[in-house]
Amino acid sequence: MRAPISVRRLWIGGMMSAILAGSGADAASLREALISAYNGNPELTGERAAQDARDADVAIAKSGARPNVGATADYTENLRRSGLNLTSPHRQLTAGINASIPIYQGGAVSNGIKAAKLRNVAGLSTLRSTEADVFTQVVAAYMDVIRDAAIVELNRKNVSVLETNLRATNDRFEVGDVTKTDVAQSEARLAGARSQLDAAEATLTASRETYLRVIGLAADALDPPPPLPNLPQDARDAVDVAIANNPDLLAARKNAEAFGYDIKVAKAARLPRLSAVGGANYLDYFNSLPAASSLGGESIGTFTQHGTTSSAGLSLTIPLYQGGLPSAQVRRAEAEARRALEQVVAVERNVVAQARSAFANYQAALAVIKSSETAVSANELALEGTRAENTVGTRNVLDVLNAEQELLNSRVQLVSARRDAYVAGFALLAAMGKAGAADLGLDGGTLYDPSVHYRKTANDWWDWHSDGPPRAVAPSTYGPSDK
Fold it and tell me: In the chain, fewer beta carbons within 10 Å around the N or the C end?
């Protein structure tokens, strides 16, 4: 495969991370747009909340291996007692505390913990994938605004040129140098140019709204984007890197591995379970039993009005028959594991296709840039020559108008091709798994560290902790001007 075409005028080549990590912090830069989206895009902040939930899944799995302690209390008023009320008090209070410590659960707990940890690791890859998706949207929105602003400016200049042409044509008509047809052609071309300008301005407005939705900032004057990192020399290189680094594929592999532990969890339902148990109880009759009693003239002693008991031991549960439930659960887990393996293959195929198509799109955009630059240069010369020939009468007004339109079209095509090449290049990075926050050098205290919440949550033994009332992190873009 041939190497990508070098297009220095389009800021392609070099290392993006070095420039993004530079000192420039202009609010209109791509770095600032990426940081704003990184901190406040609702898709990304929502996926972080989903990762926090996966942290809690690990803690839930671990809780199955920890002691379980509970307290009970019962108070009873006996409204009607039997005739033989030797042990039937008017009222009684019982209270107790019981503890159970799992010793052996057939492997259900240990394998459940392993599965939860693997899904947590898969979630980290999913979070990286969301980052790349959001950053791809940011780059597309950023470049759309730059492209559409340039197209608006090109159309505005075209309107100005055509207005000048119309005035010149009217002047020449007054002296009989051109016909009414030439004037009408100039008027029609100016009207069309004005409608094109209106359409371009509407497109720019839509692009600015997309920019605001994705990034959370208003799109004013935007700086040119920095260079993209060194991209692969051929499609095979792109595929090899993508297979090793694409976060969607990494997540699918970890999820498939987790389903393997789910099978072991299901099989554990067939095995014995052993726990250490213990407890202490308190009983109080509130002096509602007789102090002493006799039966048939023979004393049977004095009843204790209150007391305590305690116990400790082992509890063994051996399942003998459960109506076929374990077999059904094992089969379901095995089927889910097979499905996860198929999903790995499906994601791998998709990653390969994405990498190849992204590389092809990037190459095609570079080729369009090269041909568009040639077309612009040629049309500039053609327009200059047509105008000169028009002054000597060898070309008419329509020829000049057509030459101006051809030049405008080629300039618009060049601006669009530059946008397409940059977006395609970034999409190629995303397909290769090289478009996350760490890859782009968005450092300086802005990076979200998922391990902080994991350490706080996954190893928490206390029952009364929480992360606080839920609230949205992403800001609203609905302002006072919208009300």
Answer: C
